[in-house]
Amino acid sequence: MDGPSGQVDEALDDASSVLLLTPSASDSDDNACVGMLTIGGPSQANVLSATIVEPPGERVALWQRAVGDQSPNRGAIVAACEGRKQAITEDDAPDASDLLTTLAVDILPENAEPIDLGMALARYLGAWEAEEEPTVLCLHTLTALLDRFDRDVVISMVSALNDLCDSVGATAHHHMDPSAHDDEIVATFRPLYDAVVEHVPEDGWTVTRAPADVDRPSFRQSTAPPGGTAGTDPARPETIPMPYAFDQMLELISVPRRRTLLYHLKDRGTGTLSLDDLVDAVVTRERSIPARETPESADTVRVSLVHAHLPKLADLGILEFDPEDSTVRYHGNPALESFLRYVETLELG
Q1: pTM for the full model?
Q2: Residue 32 maps to a domain
C-alpha cells in the first residue's frame, strides 16, 4: 500500500472487516486493495474477489500489474457487473497463464441481487475455512451496489458477510467512493466494520478503529429483502417471503456438507426418514460431486450431522431431529427450496 503502509498494516492486524474509502479508479484505491490482499504474501492466501463494476479480466490485470504471475493459494472471482464477460482469456492477462488455470470465475445472472452475490461468496468462504492459508475477500464496490439497490438491502448483505467472515476467520475489505455519496450514507456504513481506512490526498492514509467495547450494528432483517433470493430460480417468476434473516441464509449455505444435506431434503420432500438413510444419502451425494472432498467414512458424516448440522437446522425450524429414535422429519418450505435450487444450480450446474 502506498503511503504509511506500516501504520495501516499494524492497525488492521486483528480487523476482520475493513471499509476502504478511496476515490474509484484511483491509484490509491488499487494500491490499497492489492496491499490488503497480499499482506501475508501473494501466494500465502486464498483470494476471493467480488466485482460489481469491472469485468473479471480487469481485476486479474490489476493483480498481475502488482504481483506479476504469482498465484494465490486459491483464487476466485464472483462477477455481478453489467456487461460482464463470460470468461477470462489470456488477452486479459497475457503473462498470468498459471493464474488463469487455477482461478475460478462465477458469473452471476443479469438479474442477480445482493443476496445472490452474498450466497455465492458464502460458498467459497465456507469451502475455504479449513485451509491453512488465510482467506481475504475484496468487494468492489459498495458504491456500485448502492447505485442499483436499496440502501437497507445492501446494509443487510454487508452485515451478513462481515459476520460470516468473522466466524470463518476470513478478512474482508469493501470499497466505497466517499465522493459519490453524501455524508449520511458514509456515516451509516462506518459502524458496520472493525476498521475504516481512508485516503485523503493532502494527508495520506488514516485508520479509524471501532471501539472495542461497542458491538457493531447489524441492521439485520427478520425476513429476506424484497426481490431477494426467496425466488431466485433463473426465471425468477415471483418472490416468496423468506422466513430467515440474510445472515442466516448465508451461514446455511456456507458449509459444503450442510448444503448437501439440504439438497437431499429438498429433493426428497416432506416427511420422516431414519438417520441411517440420511447419512447414506449424504455420503453418496458427496462422493458424486467432483469438487468435493470424499468423506473419510459414513461415521464421520454421521458425527457432523448429529452434532452440528441437524441441531442447527432444527433450531431454525427447518426440520425436527429426534436423537433417541434417530429420525429426522423435514418440513416443506417453498421459499427455502427455491433458494436451494438456485444455489445447487450455481454449484453443480
Answers
A1: 0.76
A2: yes
> pLDDT tens across 12-36, in order?
667 899 999 998 878 888 988 988 8
Contacting residues for 329 by C-beta, under 8 A, at least 6 apart: 271, 272, 319, 320, 321, 322
| Cell triple for 288 | 458424486
170-180 burial, b at 16+ Cβ within 10 Å, e below that, comes to bbbbbbbbbeb
Give the whole-angstrom CA distance, residue 189 versus residue 198: 13
Residues in the chain: 349
Q: How many whole angstroms separate alpha carbon 167 and alpha carbon 16? A: 9
Domain that holds residue 320: 255-348
Cβ count near 86 (within 10 Å): 9
Q: For the segment 176-215, what is each residue's pLDDT rounded down to a tens digit?
A: 999 999 999 999 999 999 999 998 777 778 888 876 655 5
Distances (CA, A) of 134 to 12, 16, 124, 128, 169: 14, 11, 13, 9, 7
Give the other-Cβ count within 10 Å of 227's Cβ: 17
Name the residue among 248, 258, 48 with its Cα closest to residue 156: 248
At residue 296, the 3 state secondary structure works out as: coil
Cα separation of 85 and 107, whole Å? 8
Residues forming beta bridges with residue 174, ordered by sequence position: 19, 139
CATH number at residue 332: 1.10.10.10
Q: Kindly state whether residues 172 and 268 are assigned to the same domain.
A: no
Do 81 and 212 belong to one domain? yes
The number of distinct structural domains making up the chain is 2
Residues 192 and 332 in one domain: no
State the DSSP string of 143-180: HHHHHHS-HHHHHHHHHHHHHHHHHHT-EEEEEE-GGG
Distance between CA atoms of residues 145 and 166, nearest Å: 22
Strand (E) or helix (H) holding 60: helix 56-67
